[in-house]
UniProtKB/TrEMBL annotation:
Biased composition (Basic residues): 684-696
Lineage of producing organism: Eukaryota, Viridiplantae, Streptophyta, Embryophyta, Tracheophyta
One CC-aspect GO term: nuclear origin of replication recognition complex
Record keywords: DNA replication, DNA-binding, Nucleus
Organism: Thalictrum thalictroides (Rue-anemone)
Protein's name in the database: Origin recognition complex subunit
Cellular compartment(s): Nucleus
Family assignment from sequence similarity: Belongs to the ORC3 family.
Ranges for domain Origin recognition complex subunit 3 N-terminal: 47-367
């Protein structure tokens, strides 16, 4: 609402007069500073820094973009293709998420089965004690006075090996579902239920809410006892899971244990408590009186590193998702897991952000969903045929396509075949990587470390050239260790160590190689089978090695040397086979044409989303506000300032034309000239014969000066709140200082 004029303000005059006196006729409420003398103004302007325009955009300059790329940028903003990318992301991520949940459940399945077996045995022990009581004692509505030996609470201590309990929340929720599916009454209690503020009443209320499905005003354990005596609830174990024991209040947890011990016969409660540190944690937290009532049993979950390896093996090595990540992104995700909180949940969220960013930034990413179809090539061919010519040109102008034959037609068939070939490459790569990783397991190498090197395209080229030279020399002199100097490469170290494996481990390794090579090529599988038969014959020959007592010492020594020589040949052939598999099939996806369509490589975008650079993002977003506000009229204007743009965005864009110090009055004039378009004089309007016809035109009306000043002040305050401006001081009352971060 525009404020009314003050009593001292002059009466309204003609529109021309108003325009001429607009700068000096400022409303008192909105005056920032009175104009100072021209000489001093000129002096201040000279002392200010030279005008400079800061480009915060992370996009490539237009001069470096091809014509096709510029056209694709316009198509990317089209609602149809945006919707296709969103749908493709939903399909692919839902499949990845389901796979991750199944993998995590599979890791804990054995431990969950052990816990369930222990729960059944504990419940049977409690029931055997209750069998000595008569019916009157068993059905009385109060706890029984029995010996302490009968008040023991069976307690499972589940060691999670986690510093952070974020992963444990999902684990104990899965445990609850598993025990429920096996016919147990199960509740989950958190450390918040054992706070000093809530006391023992908070624990009882939580039990009643989950077991009895009521929320009583008074926390009374007898309500639970009455509920359990009902026929449909009786004779079933009551399992209480406390996800993080060490975060609980010790006195409240102790009181809870003492209370349950009094009711353990009538309420056969079995505790399952998560422990993140050591076995001494209960002794440190609880007093001796409460510890005497516990009958502990230890269980151990997989470590975060083991869970991470399982997730990586299922997702990154998986070949049926239609999405992949590049080498630099994988290295960043590994470091993010190790240096941040070390939780699998944070790693999964980072992968999800990478997937989302890929579908936001890559125009052709909606084609990824076609890789999930049975007839992959046919589906992609159909989709590629519907692409505009500019998008096909963009696809063939990707950096990975620079090595393509210049005679390759820019057709839908070529594009569909190229994308389909990527999936074939990924399947072969995954199979050979598992062969390599099985050999690395004997050397206790980490999966993620091997993976980071296997995805590196530069390391692949270097390794391939080195392997060719070593292979030629190794064929001539197999006794020489030509990989001994390659200490920096984990993959070459694994190849070198295969020669030192025991015979039994090599047999196990060849069995796994045979399983994976069968999925790649028949020729490779035959080589593995041939090596297996050769190794088997060597084992049979070694069986007669013990029968050397009847031979002379010279013959025995000669026979032993022959056996060792033949054994060395088998191991050398195994090394050559692994080296050839790695050279021929362990080709990273980043070496394939069109890989940008399905592979996310922009680690800077992911790092910005995870680590965060909020001030820089605020500056970038202010310069592109129309993209976030979805303003169609502002989008058509491009980089030209329009009155319909947001005031704060207009102000910050105008600030780019100034130095570190911005003159308020110059800034205000520029702002006003932007939001108030120039209009013709009143005399010209009166003489215009078509003035009546323009009565309903779309020309904007003149804004009152007070409203313009109010909008100006509000935009300045918003820039100050975001930390992009420093307000005037006494030394420079007509200047604000611009603050830029991350430039």
């Amino acid at each position: 609402m525009t404020p009314s004029a003050t009593p001292d303000s002059p009466p309204p005059s003609s529109p021309t007069a108003n325009n001429e006196n607009a700068e000096s006729n400022l409303q008192p409420f909105f005056v920032l500073h009175k104009p100072i003398h021209k000489n001093s103004s000129r002096k201040s302007t000279q002392s200010a820094k030279t005008r400079r325009k800061i480009d915060l955009s992370t996009e490539t300059p237009k001069s470096n973009k091809s014509k096709g790329a510029e056209q694709v940028e316009q198509i990317v903003d089209d609602h149809h293709y945006q919707q296709l990318r969103v749908e493709a992301f939903d399909i692919i991520w839902s499949k990845i998420e389901i796979t991750i949940k199944e993998v995590l459940r599979g890791i804990n399945r054995n431990v969950f089965n052990e816990i369930h077996q222990w729960v059944r045995e504990s419940f049977a022990a409690i029931r055997s004690t209750a069998g000595t009581l008569n019916s009157a004692e068993f059905t009385c509505p109060y706890p029984l006075s029995i010996d302490i030996d009968y008040k023991k609470i069976f307690t499972g201590l589940v060691f999670t090996k986690n510093v952070e309990f974020v992963d444990d929340l999902l684990t104990f929720n899965d445990l609850r579902l598993h025990l429920k599916s096996q016919g147990c009454h199960v509740v989950n209690l958190s450390s918040h239920d054992f706070s000093a503020k809530s006391g023992i009443g908070g624990c009882i209320r939580s039990l009643l809410r989950q077991f009895v499905m009521v929320d009583p005003d008074v926390a009374d354990i007898t309500i639970l006892a009455s509920w359990y005596n009902e026929p449909e609830n009786f004779d079933i174990p009551l399992v209480v899971i406390i996800d993080d024991m060490e975060r609980c209040n010790g006195s409240v947890l102790s009181e809870f244990i003492l209370m349950l011990s009094e009711w353990v016969i009538k309420l056969p409660v079995i505790l399952v408590m998560g422990v993140a540190t050591t076995i001494d944690a209960p002794r440190i937290l609880l007093p001796a009186k409460a510890l005497n009532y516990l009958e502990p049993c230890k269980f151990a979950l997989g470590s975060p590193a083991e869970r991470l390896d399982a997730v990586v093996e299922a997702v990154i090595l998986g070949t049926n998702f239609g999405f992949d990540i590049g080498h630099k992104v994988t290295v960043f995700l590994r470091n993010y897991f190790l240096r941040q909180d070390g939780t699998v949940i944070s790693f999964i969220k980072a992968v999800k952000i990478a997937c989302a960013k890929h579908f936001v930034t890559e125009p052709l990413s909606f084609l990824c969903s076609g890789l999930l179809h049975e007839d992959c090539h046919g589906f992609l061919l159909q989709k590629c045929a519907l692409l505009p010519e500019s998008m096909r040109e963009y696809a063939f102008s990707l950096p990975s396509c620079e090595g393509l034959d210049k005679t390759t037609p820019l057709s839908a068939e070529s594009l569909a075949s190229g994308i389909s070939e990527i999936m074939k490459l990924k399947k072969n790569w995954s199979s050979i990587f598992m062969c390599l990783y099985e050999a690395a397991k004997f050397q206790k190498k980490q999966l993620v470390d091997i993976l980071c090197e296997a995805l590196d395209p530069d390391a692949y080229r270097t390794r391939s050239s080195l392997q060719r030279r070593v292979g030629e020399v190794l064929a001539k002199s197999p006794s020489v260790d030509h990989y001994s100097a390659t200490k920096g490469s984990l993959i070459l170290q694994v190849i070198r160590k295969v020669r030192d494996l025991p015979m039994k481990q090599l047999c196990q390794l060849l069995q796994i190689w045979g399983k994976h090579s069968e999925e790649i090529a028949a020729e490779l599988h035959e080589k593995v089978k041939e090596l297996q038969s050769l190794l088997k014959s060597e084992e049979e020959n070694n069986g007669g090695q013990a029968d050397v007592e009847g031979l002379s010492k010279m013959l025995a020594t000669r026979r032993y040397m022959n056996i060792q020589r033949d054994k060395g040949k088998v191991f050398d052939k195994a090394v050559l086979l692994l080296e050839s598999m790695i050279r021929d099939y362990l080709k990273p996806i980043e070496c394939a044409p069109f890989h940008e369509i399905i592979c996310f490589k922009n680690v800077d975008i992911l790092q910005s989303a995870l680590v965060g650079d909020p001030r820089r993002m605020i500056q970038v977003d202010l310069l592109k506000s129309h993209k976030f506000l979805l303003c169609s009229c502002c989008t058509k204007g491009g980089t030209v300032l329009l009155p319909s743009m947001h005031d704060t965005s207009i102000m910050y864009t105008l600030a780019q034309e100034h130095g570190d110090l911005i003159n308020l009055h110059d800034w205000f004039k520029n702002f006003k000239s932007t939001i108030v378009p120039p209009c013709t004089s009143a005399k010209g309007k009166m003489r215009s014969p078509s003035s009546k016809k323009r009565k309903h035109s779309n020309e904007p009306e003149d804004l009152p000066d007070a409203l313009v000043q109010a909008r100006f002040c509000r935009a300045v305050i918003e820039l100050q709140i975001t930390g992009l401006l420093k307000m005037p001081n006494k030394r420079r009352p007509d200047y604000v200082q611009r603050v830029a971060f991350g430039l």
